[in-house]
Amino acid sequence: MYRVAKASQYLVVTGAGIQDLKLVKKGWVLPGQACTVLDLSPVNYTFEVQAMSAEKLPFLLPAVFTIGPRVDDEQSLLRFARLLSAHDNRSRHVEELVQGIIEGETRVLAASMTMEEIFKGTKQFKQEVFEKVQLELNLFGLLIYNANVKQLVDVRGHEYFSYLGQKTQMEAANQARIDVAEAKKKGEIGAKLREGLTLQNAAKVDAETKIISTQRQGESQNEGIKVRTDVKVFENEKEAEVAEANSELAKKKAMWEKGAAVAEVEATKAVALREAQLQGEVERMNALTRTEKLKAEFLTKASVDYETKVQEANWELYKKQKAAEAILFKKEKEAEAQKAVAGAAFFTRQQAAEAELYAKKKEAEGLVAIGQAQGAYLKTLLDALGGNYAALRDYLMINGGMFQEIAKINAEAIHGLQPKISIWTNGNGGEASDGGAMGMKEVAGVYKMLPPLFKTVHEQTGMLPPSWMGTLPDKSS
Question: Mind giving me the DSSP string for 113-158?
């Protein structure tokens, strides 16, 4: 819903979409948000603070404080809204909070002052209480708009202020009596003084009148004498001034004549001196001219020699520099060429190594793939043969053509040998007259078979039988 606050109010909105809280005069309160009305009107709080002075004398301090939120500071408003928005300004909670702060600060301040200081310096005491309480109220965003400390009151059983009032009253009464007596004394003395002053002033006026008349007569005579004296003095001063003027004129004439003669002599000598100075200047200039001419000649020659030597040295240095630069350039180019060759060789080897590595990787991948395929193939065959390993082996040998390959290898082994085959018999057709002779006949048959066997081996391989087994017959025999 849309909420609007009054002139002395603020809306405190919290909840969804608001990180802490928001102070507004009007706005929408959305679902999931809470709105509290914050009243900024100041409130009067009346207290009777019981405190004790530095002399351990208790007293009551009636005070009225007008306190409300500080509206000129946004941080103070936020602090007040965060701490006290749940309570009304006139609630017991806020009143107890303010009363606790005021009583605590008043007691601390009163304990550091004597009763006389508190009683006589009520304005200063009020100002210090105001400042210290305001420091504590700043924590809650509150401001003291006005503070009125009433007259200090005695605690029951302690009549300090009543006695002090009685003392003040007695002192005032005594002072009033003293003032009345002092006023009477001043009145009587004043009257007598006025009469005496009247008589003194009358006598003084008469005496001054006589003195003034006598002075006026003497002044008239003195004025006549003074006029005649002034005329004579004026005449003498004028004669002296004429004589002085004549003397000054004579002195000035003598000084002028002397000055003219001295000036004439000085002019003559100055002309001669100036002539000598000019002649010296001429001679010096001639000498300087000759010196400069000689300097110019020798300096020109030396400069030419110097320039020549410098140019020759510069030319030699330039040739050496160019030669060194050519050698350096050649070395740099050779180094760059070697570097390029080395880089090319390195790149070629690197490419070959990478190609070989790639081929090996692909070969290995192919072998792995072949192995995986063969494994899958063998597993399928073994499963088809019911797990019979012997049948699988025979199938692989037959399918791989191993028997054909063995027969082929054996045929190639005896190819071109051209063996001589001899067939022999024991001569009687294998017949035997009796059973006992049959066994010896077999042995005799074996011994009869050995000579042709040895001969066949000798013909085919060249090997002879051992000596203990006999020798082969001669061809002639």
Answer: S-HHHHHHTHHHHHHHHHHHHHHHHGGGTEEEEEEEE---EEPTT-
